[in-house]
Protein 1
Amino acid sequence: MLCDVSVLITGGAGYIGAHIVRLLRERGDDVVVVDDLSSGDPARLGDTPLVTFDLAAADAVDRLRATIERYSVESIIHLAARKQVGESVAHPAMYFRDNIGSLANVVEACALAGVTRLVYSSSAAVYGIPSGAPVTEDAATEPINPYGETKLVGEWLVRDAAPAHGLRSVTLRYFNVAGAGWDDLGDPNVQNLVTIAIDRTVRGLAPVVFGDSFDTPDGTGVRDYVHVMDLAEAHLASLDALDALGAAGGPADATVYNVGTGQGASVREVLASLAGASGEAFDPIVDPPRPGDPPSVVADASRIAADLGWRSSRTLDEMVVSAWRAHEWRSRTPA
Ligand code: WQD
């Protein structure tokens, strides 16, 4: 079957991946998704081709090569990974096997199939407990959990693939992602502040604040919350930059960018935004801080702005309101 050139997105049936797929399809790109559906939802993809297999499996390189060939793939966005910090602490071997193994298979398939453009999903978790704010890409990378370690080792692998295989790459270090670009693409995982607070609100429970004595303006933890649509747009900007470079030839390189707003927001600020979105104002419960929780993690996102012209454009309130609307849509829509 003759196809236009496609972008292959691993993990494209996931919360973030589905936003990238929809943006690419809306602008006319052809996309093929590889996803094992261990946490992804095919309903998010509409008529986008989906190939389902485990990227860490022994036959993954062959199946990736076949998919690359069938869909005339020239660039890959690799999102597929396990990403629960607590689970990674309990099951480090599974995280290294799956997160590093799947990426290694993607890199090997690229080398064998002649794919030279890769966008790699990394995380602010590679910084561990950064000193001061905002964090630049040159800050020390000292992850404090196996999840963050696998993301950092993945960056090393992608970097090594440049001279070895001519693989040009952009690595994106996500900060705290939330919100929804469409009501049907909300984050169903109740694992991070916004979705946990929404879940508790709809159940009539007060949200919980993990520590209010940090050295921050209001004592609660500060993070850089970036709207998932802004994050998805950063992937399109990265792809376009690689496509331009790819056509020019020349030595491959591996560039790393923070993807954040550059503005911090405290837990209390996020909860105040949610109270406005939901119309429900709870006095939060204050619990002790989580072990190892950094007081503040905020991006310096000036490098991606300078190189790719990408900047976040959506506000904290837009992010929280969109997350709330998506949750309401999901509760109205039968599974
Ligand atoms: C945010 C803030 C908590 C829940 C994680 C992982 C990693 C990365 C980003 C992908 C902190 C506070 C939270 C609650 C609270 N994602 N909090 N009450 O820990 O910054 O980072 O997400 O790479 O998965 O590093 O995110 O949402 O858990 O916490 O007070 O019920 O909210 O202490 O200050 P975190 P988070």
Protein 2
Amino acid sequence: MQIDILTLFPQMFEGPLTTGIFKRAVNRELVQLNTHNIRDWTHDKHHTVDDYPYGGGAGMVLKPEPIFQAVEALKPGGLQQQGADIMPIILLTPQGRLFSQQIAFELSQYSRLVLICGHYEGVDERVIEYLATDEISIGDYVLSGGELPAMVVADAVVRLIPGVLGSEASAVDDSYATDLLEYPQYTRPPEYRGWAVPEVLLSGNHGEVARWRREQAVLRTLRRRPELLNKASLSSEEKYLLSKLKTLTE
Ligand code: 6GU
């Protein structure tokens, strides 16, 4: 997969994109990550990327021309896209659809992605209407730019590409992939400051361990994120357990 990131602050990506998951994916040639400075596509003396909003108001608005030119330079054949050639052009903005594991999975199916980092003040609406194919937000809080969200999206997508993670199982087992939160994890020592690891995990009984973990995941989800249980696939035994717990707490 090739990911092109358009930003006013390419230096923000230097550390994250050369560390951990991205480093591995790039080294294994599973991912090619490029950052592009939107400012490089300005042609005036002052390299102007933003301007005052028409109609007045606070803040500045990102101009359309440098963003259109930066994206068009990535696709010399023009922007008409068809079939396998399709390349999502995603604007990161608080007005976008809410990012999720499902969206990460959908994006992981493409061979190319373009991420445009917006800024809180805003981006000229013509970028949204005639250039971007998608708008994504990572949550209901305000960040000063789309750079951190672009890293969040890229991380979530890249780790779903086959061969990026150490074991293929790790991605499947994650929270949200199973619609349940993760069960508690422990490592050595078996007792630390008097706090013991649950006995069952030391038992060596794989069936018992699997049952305990599944039960912990369901209980933790019930307590912390009960709305997730509506779409989770639960056994009839688990549904019965949950209905009993719910009547107990009513
Ligand atoms: Cl994508 N951008 C900004 N500026 N703030 C955000 C966001 C994006 N998602 C959540 N907050």
